[in-house]
Structure formats: C-alpha cells, structure tokens
Target: PLP-dependent transferase
Amino acid sequence: MDEQRGFTTEQVHGGFLPDTAHGARVPAIHMSSGFLFEDAAQARDRFAGTDDGYTYTRLGNPTNADVERRIALLEHGAEAILVGSGQAAATVAFLGLLGAGDHVVSAASIYEGTRGLLLQNLGRLGITVDFVTDARDLDAWAAAVRPETKAFFAETIPNPKNDVLDITGVAEVAHRAGVPLVVDNTLATPYLVRPVDHGADVVVHSASKFLSGHGAGLGGVVVDGGRFDWTTNPERWPHLTQADRALGGASHTDRYGRGAFIAYARDVVAARVGPTPSPFNAFLLRQGIETLSLRVERHVANALAVATWLEAQPEVTSVDHAGLASSPYHDLARRYLPRGAGSVFAFTLAGGEPAAHAFIDAVELFSRMTHLGDVRSLALHPASTTHAGRTPEERAAQGIDDGLVRLSVGIEDVADLVRDLERGFAAVRELAGTDREARPAPATTGTALGLPTSASAWVPEAVEAVAGAVPAALPVSAAVPAAVPVSGAVPTAAGAR
Model:
C-alpha cells in the first residue's frame, strides 16, 4: 500500500509481516535463544551478513523486529533498535556516537538517570558533558560547543517540569556545529510529536512508559532518522567512516550510507553489550502500541483538566504544565504539541516537604510509585526520591522545590481523580491547621475562569465549562467523553523515573 495512512492505522498495522506458516494475525512470540540453520553454508552466510536470517536472539528476534518496524514507522524514522530499557536505549545511542575524549552538550532539564549516565558512567570512559541551564537559550547551546563535541541531547517534554523543548531551534544549532541532535521522546510519544520531523537525528524512548502503557514490562528504543550525513566530516566519526575488517574492509558509511550509525549501534554496540529485551516484553509492548493514540488522547485531556483545577487551589504556588496559558512554555507547546502537552507535570505546595508528604500519603486513587506513562495515575515527591541525590542548590536551580509533587495522570474518570486530589488537599489543610472556607482563593488563572474548587463540583458540565474558557483550546477528540480540549498552545534516586 503506497497511500499515507493515519497514525492510529499505523499503530495497529504498521510493519506487520503475514505469518506464511500458519496465518496467525497477531505475530508470534518467538521465545527461542537461537535459530536453526538449514546447512553449514547458510550458517556461514548469516554470520557474514549476506543472509538476513536470524542466528541468536541477542542479535535479533522476529518478535522484537516486528516492534522495531512499527516504532520506526510511527516516529518517521529509518530504522529502530529495541532494547531492554530506556536506560539501555540512551546508552546504546551514546556509545554509537561517542568515544574517549568526546563531548556532549545536554539540556539540564533531563531525567536524573540519564544525567548520571553522562556524568558518571560515560565520564569514566573519558566523555565529558556540559549542561545548558535554559534550553530555550539557543546562544547558550552554541556557546557550549567545543571542537570535540559530538552530540546534543535533550528531551521533548522533560520530567517533571513539562518545560517543552524547541526541537527545531536546538537541531539547527547542532547541525551548524556538525553534530546530531539526540532526543528522548518518552513523555511525548510520536503521537504528540515526531522529533525527526523537526530536525532531530536520533530518538530514544523508555518504551516501558507510554508506548507500553500498562506498567507490565520494560523496554527501550533507539530510532535513527536516517538523515544525518556522517561523511560530511568523516574525521569526526572514524568508527563509521574508516575501514572495518568485519565488513570486509568496507566502512559502515560505505555499506550503509546514512544508516551507518544505526547499523553500528545494532551490530557493534547492542550486540556486544547485550541489552536484549525478552520477546515476551516485546509482545506486551506491541499490544500497548496498538492503543497508543487512544490512551494518550485521554491522558492529555485528563492532565489538562487536573492542571487547570490545581491552578485554582490556594495551597498551590505554581503548576508546571505547558498546556496552561500561564506556562512560559505555552508557545512551544502550541508549536510542537497541538494534540496536548503530555500528562506528566508538577505542582508546588506552599507548605514545602511536610505538605507534599501529607498530600501524597492521603491520596488513594493515585499510586505512590516511581513510574510514568501508566494507565493508572501516579504521584511522587521528587526532592526526596528521584532527585534526592542532588544538592538543595542544584534542585533549586532546576525548580525542584521541596513542596513540588509530580503527577503522571492516567486514563481514569477525571472527576474521580480530582476527588482523590481533594483528599490530598484536605490533609495539607489539616497539617497547616486551616480550612478551605477560612482562606480566600488567590486571583489565579483558574479562579479567574470560575473553575470549581471542590471535587463535588467537578462534573462533566464543569469540565465542558473549562473547555470553553481555556484560551486557544484545540479539541483532543470527540471520542473522549467529557474530555477537556488540550490547549493548542501546547529511580530510586539513581535509576528510576
């Protein structure tokens, strides 16, 4: 079929190869470590790379390959590699580009695990990194470039501040410096934005999050846009442009052209480091991808409804959601995320850590756990968990206040979510010795819009009223009941998101 198909069609049908043996409509789970050769000649050819069949699951598996094809299609990429986790994806991408003495320019607002990977793990290998505090400052990106710089790195929607990336702007700076832009698209997913379409060169995901969607399995993905020309400055990429004995004396660029990076990342990095996903996890991931757009529509509608409601609460000093007109990233959300600014964001309580802990301990529907992108709503206190390894000064520089609470809003009924959040606020008021009636609400955007301030008033009619009041709102989908249109404007401490 040559016609361009819609996203939801591709997430169900993209990359599917018919089962010629049995006619199964759902691709099989190939739980096999190795694969039979018909004869010695076939074994020889597969090891030589002249026969495309499978040899060993660490090197490739039909179940995993099905998911790779689908994700590459959805991201508008040339090819994808499925690995065991999001951290594995970032590691494979970096090791496919970098060597001792190389340098990375990264946004400061990134996942703590990736920050640690860059500073500690890659640092021990002689790779250095500089962080750009304000990712909107394109001059700061340019000023951080050195002769040994080999990559830029950033996230489309960083966690937990929802501070949207100017993908095109950063990509243009990277390309003027002669290096690729690597983007983590975990929290946006290709349904909300395809970074390759805006100039990114390599995209990584923690597929454990929204792509899988159900918190049932780990996975990661590296996607190559296939557009970066590695031969323009061949001396920068000797591992890709110099002769390789394993390729019969050809270089990776000779053999694979602009696909040299992904071939090297697959055959040299991933194959040897071995971050292989179980085919069963790949199957779970594929099942999740088939409903991705439907889930994300509901995620982002619920998140905007919750963020708007939170903005009206007197105990809240700020809400970090780019879908709100009050966000300094609202313009970037309008530009890059017309379907919504995601569903992972934060809000800050005036009462600091005691208030945040009281709030989190009181909720019942929101799960207290370190994970994101689940169909279930989740809540966490970053300052004492994911960002506990940072100094107070470092957290303050990143806007991680002691009273900040991170939410990953799920697909439940929004009235139930707000009712549960109301339990948290009741606990905060009890801790402070105040009650709602004694405290006038501040003149926030939410209050000005006349939003309900209690869960009992948060009914579908009220949600629709919010939809009519939020400026520049774009409908998410008529199929999402009681959905707020998304504003068109828009580890443990060491290892979990």
In short: The two ends are 39 Å apart (CA to CA). The chain is about 35% helix and 10% strand. The chain has two domains: 7-30+61-289, 293-487. The longest strand covers residues 149-155.
